[in-house]
Write a sequence for this structure.
């Protein structure tokens, strides 16, 4: 059980492995499944940063991960739920971004920033908390200001 939700043993094991990896003194590159979970948890963290985890943001997260990982609706919802548990247990945003930065080439990280902007903009409001976290996340992912700005503009148009 993580938080107030009951998960099957294999999910608990996967979440435990990811959290241990994220909090290791010298994190190792993430396996594909762990990278998916870390990215989704980062999107959840951004959506929750303004203390208003809106349905539009949840739907946007599921659309992003379904398209990115070629998942069906149920699989995307399950991954999002797992990521919510990881996000709730892992207080350190820096570790998420470090793990993603180490596992993902620059162009994909730029797309991660675009996806993150899509989540931030999904509810139609940009809270100061979301903007501040987005600036930090883009910098920690090693995405320069220019590319982050372009990503935000693309996200606003979609």
């Amino acid at each position: 059980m993580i938080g107030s939700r009951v998960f099957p043993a294999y999910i608990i094991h996967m979440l435990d492995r990811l959290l241990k990896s994220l909090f290791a003194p010298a994190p190792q590159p993430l396996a594909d499944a762990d990278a998916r979970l870390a990215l989704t948890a980062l999107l959840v963290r951004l959506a929750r940063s303004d203390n208003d985890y809106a349905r539009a943001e949840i739907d946007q997260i599921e659309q992003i991960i379904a398209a990115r990982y070629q998942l069906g609706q149920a699989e995307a919802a399950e991954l999002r739920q797992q990521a919510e548990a990881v996000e709730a247990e892992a207080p350190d945003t820096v570790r998420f971004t470090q793990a993603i930065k180490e596992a993902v080439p620059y162009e994909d990280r730029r797309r991660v920033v675009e996806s993150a902007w899509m989540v931030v903009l999904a509810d139609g409001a940009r809270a100061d908390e979301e903007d501040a976290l987005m600036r930090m996340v883009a910098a920690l992912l090693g995405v320069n200001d220019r590319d982050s700005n372009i990503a935000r503009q693309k996200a606003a148009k979609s």
